[in-house]
Amino acid sequence: MAGGRAALFDLDGTLINSEPRSMAVWSRLLDAHNVPYDEATLHRFMGRRGPDVIAEDPSLFPGVSWDVLLSELQQIGSAPDLPPVRPLPESAEFVRALHARGVPIALVTSAGPEWAHAALHMVGVAELFTGVITAADVRRGKPDPEGYLAGARLLGADPARTTVFEDTPAGVEAGLRAGMGVVAITTTHVPAVLQKADLIVDHLTEVDWDGIGPSGRAPE
After folding, report:
1. Which of 49, 50, 62, 79 is 20 to 30 A from 18 (CA-CA)?
2. Is-contact 105 95, C-beta < 8 A?
3. CA torsion 188→219→176→93, rounded to 10°?
4. How far is 156 from 153, CA to CA, in rounded Å?
């Protein structure tokens, strides 16, 4: 392990720009159930597992099981007119740079395993990841730290010497609660709502791995 440090990456919004598509899918589901919503409602689903958000607010889909909603989401997600999913080339470049330095890397995502592995191949970095922690691997999703702590164990890494790369407030909070340094990327959220992160960038190629310090936090 390079200097005892490790890196954990979120997927959607961090390695790929899938959030416009995701927001379109959730908006169509809400429309189908005649549920009023605004952009803030849609953002509650970003970076989190759908069942966790719905459990916190049962009024969104009263009396409808997650299995039914999941089936509807899958049907909506197959529509041909949804916004495209695009890899973030700067993020892929940064992952390759860390791997070249021998930094252990794992994925921690609120998505399911099938999408996680397919997306990593889409970005072209699947073989660089030691392992993947998905929604199926945790009991409590982000902002709970369970996923990131599992990612650190997977790599045999000390959380205090692990850096998380995220794009959502829930993900930032999860990384911080895991005792890790957190770098936020502004793909899906404005800097103002990511302020708890140790460092905020527009693209991951702006990150100086040495400059952010061994804990992932910018030097004092």
Report:
1. 62
2. yes
3. 40
4. 5
């957190």: which residue's tokens? 182
Pick the catalytic residue from 10, 52, 144, 167. 10
- Is 67 a known active-site residue? no
This model's pTM is above 0.70: yes
* Tokens found for residue 34: 């005649």
Per the structure block, which two tokens stand in for 187? 């793909």
Tens digits of residue pLDDT in 6-63: 999 999 999 999 888 888 988 999 999 999 988 888 888 877 788 888 888 888 898 8
What are 85's two structure tokens? 């999913």
> For this structure, is 31 an active site residue?
no
- Over residues 96-100, the mean pLDDT reads 97
3 state DSSP class of 197: coil
Rounded to the nearest angstrom, the gap between the alpha carbon of residue 178 and the centroid of all alpha carbons in its chain is: 15
**What pLDDT sits at residue 119?**
93
- Tokens describing residue 158: 């000390």
Alpha helices in 44-88, H assignment, sequence order: 50-56, 66-77
Across the beta sheet with 105-108, the strand order is 131-133, 105-108, 6-9, 162-166, 181-185, 199-201
DSSP code, position 162: E
Three-state DSSP at 192 gives: helix
Mean of pLDDT over the chain:
90
Query: 86-87 and 16-17 as β-strands: parallel, antiparallel, unpaired?
Result: antiparallel
